[in-house]
Design goal:
312 residues; mainly beta; Immunoglobulin-like; 2 domains; 6-stranded mixed beta sheet; 4-stranded mixed beta sheet; 4 helices; globular; GerMN
Length: 312
Protein backbone atom coordinates (compact mmCIF):
# COMPACT_ATOMS: atom_id res chain seq x y z
CA UNK A 1 0.00 0.00 0.00
CA UNK A 2 1.37 3.38 -0.97
CA UNK A 3 0.62 5.99 1.64
CA UNK A 4 0.72 9.68 0.89
CA UNK A 5 -0.05 12.80 2.91
CA UNK A 6 -3.68 13.35 3.74
CA UNK A 7 -5.60 15.42 1.21
CA UNK A 8 -8.07 18.20 2.01
CA UNK A 9 -11.70 17.47 1.24
CA UNK A 10 -13.29 19.80 -1.33
CA UNK A 11 -16.94 20.28 -2.12
CA UNK A 12 -16.69 19.93 -5.89
CA UNK A 13 -18.52 18.06 -8.58
CA UNK A 14 -20.43 18.19 -11.69
CA UNK A 15 -24.05 18.61 -12.72
CA UNK A 16 -25.92 16.15 -14.90
CA UNK A 17 -25.58 16.88 -18.60
CA UNK A 18 -25.90 14.70 -21.70
CA UNK A 19 -25.94 10.94 -21.02
CA UNK A 20 -23.33 8.51 -22.28
CA UNK A 21 -24.58 6.42 -25.22
CA UNK A 22 -25.20 2.82 -24.24
CA UNK A 23 -24.87 3.01 -20.47
CA UNK A 24 -28.06 1.62 -18.93
CA UNK A 25 -29.78 3.21 -15.96
CA UNK A 26 -29.58 1.19 -12.74
CA UNK A 27 -32.62 -0.73 -11.61
CA UNK A 28 -33.69 -1.97 -8.21
CA UNK A 29 -36.19 -4.56 -7.04
CA UNK A 30 -37.35 -5.95 -3.73
CA UNK A 31 -38.39 -4.20 -0.55
CA UNK A 32 -35.60 -4.65 1.99
CA UNK A 33 -33.85 -1.37 2.76
CA UNK A 34 -30.32 -0.67 3.89
CA UNK A 35 -31.64 -0.06 7.41
CA UNK A 36 -33.03 -3.61 7.46
CA UNK A 37 -29.83 -5.04 6.04
CA UNK A 38 -27.69 -3.16 8.56
CA UNK A 39 -29.87 -4.25 11.47
CA UNK A 40 -29.27 -7.93 10.82
CA UNK A 41 -26.40 -8.88 13.10
CA UNK A 42 -24.26 -11.96 12.45
CA UNK A 43 -21.42 -13.34 14.54
CA UNK A 44 -22.19 -10.71 17.19
CA UNK A 45 -20.98 -7.91 14.91
CA UNK A 46 -22.11 -4.59 16.43
CA UNK A 47 -24.63 -2.63 14.40
CA UNK A 48 -24.99 1.10 14.43
CA UNK A 49 -27.36 3.67 12.93
CA UNK A 50 -25.97 7.11 12.34
CA UNK A 51 -27.13 10.15 10.40
CA UNK A 52 -24.97 13.23 10.48
CA UNK A 53 -25.03 16.52 8.61
CA UNK A 54 -23.42 16.56 5.18
CA UNK A 55 -21.35 18.97 3.13
CA UNK A 56 -22.75 20.71 0.03
CA UNK A 57 -23.58 18.20 -2.69
CA UNK A 58 -20.48 17.53 -4.80
CA UNK A 59 -22.74 16.66 -7.74
CA UNK A 60 -23.44 20.36 -8.36
CA UNK A 61 -21.07 23.09 -9.44
CA UNK A 62 -20.67 25.61 -6.65
CA UNK A 63 -19.21 29.07 -6.45
CA UNK A 64 -16.27 27.87 -4.40
CA UNK A 65 -13.59 30.59 -4.41
CA UNK A 66 -10.79 28.41 -5.74
CA UNK A 67 -8.89 25.28 -4.85
CA UNK A 68 -8.00 24.59 -1.24
CA UNK A 69 -4.41 25.25 -0.25
CA UNK A 70 -2.62 22.11 0.96
CA UNK A 71 0.71 23.52 1.98
CA UNK A 72 3.44 25.71 0.52
CA UNK A 73 2.97 25.79 -3.24
CA UNK A 74 0.35 23.03 -3.24
CA UNK A 75 -3.38 22.74 -3.89
CA UNK A 76 -5.80 19.85 -3.50
CA UNK A 77 -7.52 18.73 -6.69
CA UNK A 78 -10.00 16.04 -7.71
CA UNK A 79 -8.66 13.31 -9.99
CA UNK A 80 -10.92 10.69 -11.56
CA UNK A 81 -9.74 7.11 -11.87
CA UNK A 82 -11.32 3.90 -13.14
CA UNK A 83 -12.47 1.04 -10.94
CA UNK A 84 -14.62 -2.07 -11.19
CA UNK A 85 -18.32 -2.08 -10.27
CA UNK A 86 -21.26 -4.45 -10.92
CA UNK A 87 -22.14 -2.11 -13.81
CA UNK A 88 -18.68 -2.50 -15.34
CA UNK A 89 -15.86 0.01 -15.24
CA UNK A 90 -16.82 3.34 -13.68
CA UNK A 91 -15.13 6.52 -12.47
CA UNK A 92 -14.10 7.06 -8.84
CA UNK A 93 -12.96 10.45 -7.55
CA UNK A 94 -9.87 10.88 -5.39
CA UNK A 95 -8.47 14.12 -3.99
CA UNK A 96 -4.71 14.63 -4.37
CA UNK A 97 -2.23 17.33 -3.47
CA UNK A 98 -0.34 18.73 -6.45
CA UNK A 99 1.86 21.70 -7.25
CA UNK A 100 -0.08 24.93 -7.46
CA UNK A 101 2.04 26.07 -10.41
CA UNK A 102 -0.01 24.09 -12.96
CA UNK A 103 -2.72 22.06 -11.20
CA UNK A 104 -4.61 21.29 -14.41
CA UNK A 105 -1.64 19.54 -15.99
CA UNK A 106 -0.60 17.93 -12.70
CA UNK A 107 -4.06 16.41 -12.25
CA UNK A 108 -4.10 15.23 -15.86
CA UNK A 109 -0.67 13.64 -15.38
CA UNK A 110 -1.85 11.75 -12.30
CA UNK A 111 -4.95 10.62 -14.21
CA UNK A 112 -3.13 9.37 -17.31
CA UNK A 113 -0.49 7.58 -15.21
CA UNK A 114 -3.14 5.92 -13.02
CA UNK A 115 -1.20 7.30 -10.07
CA UNK A 116 -3.96 6.76 -7.52
CA UNK A 117 -3.52 6.48 -3.77
CA UNK A 118 -6.14 3.71 -3.71
CA UNK A 119 -4.74 0.49 -5.26
CA UNK A 120 -8.25 -0.43 -6.46
CA UNK A 121 -8.18 2.46 -8.92
CA UNK A 122 -6.50 2.65 -12.32
CA UNK A 123 -6.68 4.45 -15.66
CA UNK A 124 -7.82 3.75 -19.20
CA UNK A 125 -5.01 5.84 -20.70
CA UNK A 126 -2.31 3.57 -22.16
CA UNK A 127 0.76 5.47 -20.93
CA UNK A 128 2.02 8.87 -21.97
CA UNK A 129 0.94 12.36 -20.92
CA UNK A 130 -0.56 15.55 -22.28
CA UNK A 131 1.69 18.44 -23.34
CA UNK A 132 -0.44 21.11 -21.67
CA UNK A 133 -3.87 21.81 -20.19
CA UNK A 134 -5.12 25.40 -20.16
CA UNK A 135 -8.38 27.14 -19.38
CA UNK A 136 -9.24 29.52 -22.19
CA UNK A 137 -12.31 31.63 -22.95
CA UNK A 138 -15.11 29.19 -23.72
CA UNK A 139 -13.16 25.94 -23.32
CA UNK A 140 -10.55 23.93 -21.48
CA UNK A 141 -7.88 23.12 -24.08
CA UNK A 142 -5.86 19.94 -23.75
CA UNK A 143 -2.80 19.72 -26.00
CA UNK A 144 -1.57 16.24 -26.91
CA UNK A 145 2.14 15.51 -27.22
CA UNK A 146 1.70 13.39 -30.38
CA UNK A 147 -0.95 11.41 -32.28
CA UNK A 148 -0.64 8.31 -30.08
CA UNK A 149 -4.10 8.82 -28.56
CA UNK A 150 -5.95 9.76 -31.76
CA UNK A 151 -7.25 6.23 -32.25
CA UNK A 152 -8.30 3.55 -29.80
CA UNK A 153 -5.49 1.60 -28.21
CA UNK A 154 -5.23 -2.13 -28.86
CA UNK A 155 -7.96 -3.94 -26.95
CA UNK A 156 -9.83 -0.75 -26.01
CA UNK A 157 -13.57 -0.97 -26.64
CA UNK A 158 -15.74 1.93 -27.80
CA UNK A 159 -17.30 2.11 -24.35
CA UNK A 160 -13.86 2.25 -22.73
CA UNK A 161 -12.84 4.99 -25.15
CA UNK A 162 -15.87 7.06 -24.13
CA UNK A 163 -15.17 6.41 -20.46
CA UNK A 164 -11.52 7.45 -20.93
CA UNK A 165 -12.74 10.71 -22.49
CA UNK A 166 -15.03 11.23 -19.50
CA UNK A 167 -12.13 10.48 -17.14
CA UNK A 168 -10.35 13.45 -18.72
CA UNK A 169 -13.42 15.70 -18.79
CA UNK A 170 -14.43 15.11 -15.17
CA UNK A 171 -10.86 15.61 -13.96
CA UNK A 172 -10.05 18.89 -15.72
CA UNK A 173 -13.53 20.33 -15.16
CA UNK A 174 -13.23 19.44 -11.48
CA UNK A 175 -9.89 21.20 -11.18
CA UNK A 176 -11.12 24.24 -13.12
CA UNK A 177 -14.40 24.21 -11.13
CA UNK A 178 -16.16 24.84 -14.41
CA UNK A 179 -18.27 22.86 -16.87
CA UNK A 180 -16.54 24.36 -19.88
CA UNK A 181 -16.30 21.97 -22.85
CA UNK A 182 -12.96 20.24 -23.27
CA UNK A 183 -11.13 20.51 -26.61
CA UNK A 184 -8.26 18.19 -27.49
CA UNK A 185 -5.79 19.81 -29.88
CA UNK A 186 -2.46 19.35 -31.60
CA UNK A 187 -0.74 22.47 -32.85
CA UNK A 188 -3.87 24.50 -32.22
CA UNK A 189 -6.13 22.23 -34.28
CA UNK A 190 -8.76 19.81 -32.90
CA UNK A 191 -7.81 16.14 -32.99
CA UNK A 192 -9.74 12.98 -32.04
CA UNK A 193 -9.25 11.31 -28.69
CA UNK A 194 -9.38 7.51 -28.99
CA UNK A 195 -11.45 7.95 -32.15
CA UNK A 196 -13.88 10.42 -30.56
CA UNK A 197 -14.38 13.72 -32.36
CA UNK A 198 -13.46 16.60 -30.02
CA UNK A 199 -13.86 19.55 -32.42
CA UNK A 200 -17.11 20.66 -30.78
CA UNK A 201 -15.73 20.16 -27.29
CA UNK A 202 -16.26 17.19 -24.99
CA UNK A 203 -18.92 17.67 -22.32
CA UNK A 204 -19.41 15.76 -19.10
CA UNK A 205 -21.84 12.87 -19.36
CA UNK A 206 -24.57 12.31 -16.77
CA UNK A 207 -23.11 11.01 -13.51
CA UNK A 208 -25.33 7.91 -13.45
CA UNK A 209 -23.81 6.84 -16.75
CA UNK A 210 -20.14 7.09 -15.83
CA UNK A 211 -19.62 7.45 -12.06
CA UNK A 212 -19.52 4.62 -9.54
CA UNK A 213 -22.70 4.60 -7.45
CA UNK A 214 -20.73 4.99 -4.21
CA UNK A 215 -17.47 6.81 -3.56
CA UNK A 216 -15.63 7.29 -0.26
CA UNK A 217 -13.99 10.70 0.22
CA UNK A 218 -12.93 10.27 3.85
CA UNK A 219 -11.20 8.44 5.41
CA UNK A 220 -8.50 8.55 2.77
CA UNK A 221 -6.42 5.57 1.73
CA UNK A 222 -3.67 4.96 4.30
CA UNK A 223 -5.03 7.42 6.85
CA UNK A 224 -4.53 7.00 10.59
CA UNK A 225 -7.82 7.62 12.37
CA UNK A 226 -9.13 7.86 15.90
CA UNK A 227 -12.57 7.70 17.44
CA UNK A 228 -14.97 8.73 16.15
CA UNK A 229 -14.01 7.66 12.65
CA UNK A 230 -15.55 10.27 10.35
CA UNK A 231 -16.56 8.87 6.97
CA UNK A 232 -18.05 10.77 4.05
CA UNK A 233 -18.59 10.50 0.34
CA UNK A 234 -21.26 10.44 -2.33
CA UNK A 235 -23.71 7.77 -3.43
CA UNK A 236 -26.79 6.96 -5.46
CA UNK A 237 -28.24 4.10 -3.43
CA UNK A 238 -31.70 2.58 -3.09
CA UNK A 239 -33.84 4.75 -0.81
CA UNK A 240 -30.66 6.75 0.01
CA UNK A 241 -29.40 3.96 2.31
CA UNK A 242 -25.61 3.65 2.46
CA UNK A 243 -24.53 0.58 4.45
CA UNK A 244 -20.95 0.46 5.71
CA UNK A 245 -18.61 -2.07 7.30
CA UNK A 246 -15.27 -2.08 9.08
CA UNK A 247 -13.24 -5.19 8.35
CA UNK A 248 -10.11 -6.42 10.09
CA UNK A 249 -6.95 -7.68 8.43
CA UNK A 250 -8.48 -11.12 7.79
CA UNK A 251 -11.50 -9.58 6.06
CA UNK A 252 -13.87 -10.33 8.94
CA UNK A 253 -16.52 -7.69 9.64
CA UNK A 254 -15.95 -6.23 13.11
CA UNK A 255 -18.48 -3.40 12.91
CA UNK A 256 -21.29 -2.48 10.55
CA UNK A 257 -24.00 0.11 10.23
CA UNK A 258 -25.54 2.51 7.74
CA UNK A 259 -26.03 6.17 7.04
CA UNK A 260 -28.42 8.09 4.82
CA UNK A 261 -27.48 10.15 1.79
CA UNK A 262 -29.22 13.42 0.95
CA UNK A 263 -31.17 11.78 -1.86
CA UNK A 264 -31.17 9.05 -4.47
CA UNK A 265 -32.37 8.16 -7.95
CA UNK A 266 -30.92 10.68 -10.39
CA UNK A 267 -27.36 11.52 -9.34
CA UNK A 268 -24.84 11.03 -6.55
CA UNK A 269 -25.73 12.66 -3.24
CA UNK A 270 -23.45 13.38 -0.26
CA UNK A 271 -23.44 11.20 2.85
CA UNK A 272 -21.54 11.49 6.11
CA UNK A 273 -21.33 9.51 9.35
CA UNK A 274 -19.37 9.29 12.61
CA UNK A 275 -18.48 5.84 13.94
CA UNK A 276 -17.40 5.01 17.48
CA UNK A 277 -14.32 2.79 17.09
CA UNK A 278 -13.01 3.25 20.64
CA UNK A 279 -13.55 -0.44 21.48
CA UNK A 280 -11.63 -1.73 18.47
CA UNK A 281 -7.99 -2.69 19.11
CA UNK A 282 -5.42 -0.44 17.48
CA UNK A 283 -4.33 -1.78 14.12
CA UNK A 284 -5.06 -1.98 10.41
CA UNK A 285 -8.63 -2.10 9.12
CA UNK A 286 -10.61 -1.51 5.94
CA UNK A 287 -13.59 0.84 5.85
CA UNK A 288 -16.13 -0.14 3.17
CA UNK A 289 -19.15 1.87 2.01
CA UNK A 290 -21.65 0.30 -0.36
CA UNK A 291 -24.95 0.77 -2.10
CA UNK A 292 -28.06 -0.90 -0.74
CA UNK A 293 -28.91 -4.11 -2.62
CA UNK A 294 -32.59 -4.97 -2.15
CA UNK A 295 -32.31 -7.67 -4.83
CA UNK A 296 -30.15 -9.82 -2.56
CA UNK A 297 -27.38 -10.09 -5.15
CA UNK A 298 -29.58 -10.90 -8.15
CA UNK A 299 -28.79 -7.54 -9.74
CA UNK A 300 -25.02 -8.02 -9.63
CA UNK A 301 -24.57 -7.07 -5.99
CA UNK A 302 -23.79 -3.73 -4.36
CA UNK A 303 -21.22 -1.24 -5.55
CA UNK A 304 -18.43 -0.88 -2.98
CA UNK A 305 -15.62 1.54 -2.30
CA UNK A 306 -13.04 0.78 0.38
CA UNK A 307 -10.19 2.54 2.14
CA UNK A 308 -7.44 0.91 4.20
CA UNK A 309 -6.90 2.77 7.47
CA UNK A 310 -5.02 2.42 10.72
CA UNK A 311 -6.92 2.93 13.95
CA UNK A 312 -4.46 4.46 16.38
Amino acid sequence: MRIRPTAVVLALALATLAGCGDDAEPTSSGTETGRQQASRSSNNVPTEETQEGVAPAPSTVTSAPGLASSGPGQVTVPVYFVGSTPQGKRLFREFQRVSGDDPLLAAADAMTAGDALDPDYGTLFPGGSFASVTEEPGAIVVEVADDGWSTRAAGMSRREARLAAQQLVYTVQGVAQSRLPVRVEAGGEPVPLFGIDTAGGLRNAGPDGVLAFVNVTTPEQGATVGSPLVASGVANSFEANVPWEIRDGSGAVVKRGFTTAEGWGNKLYPWRTKINVSKLPAGDYTFVAMTDDPSGGEGGGPTEDSKDVTIG
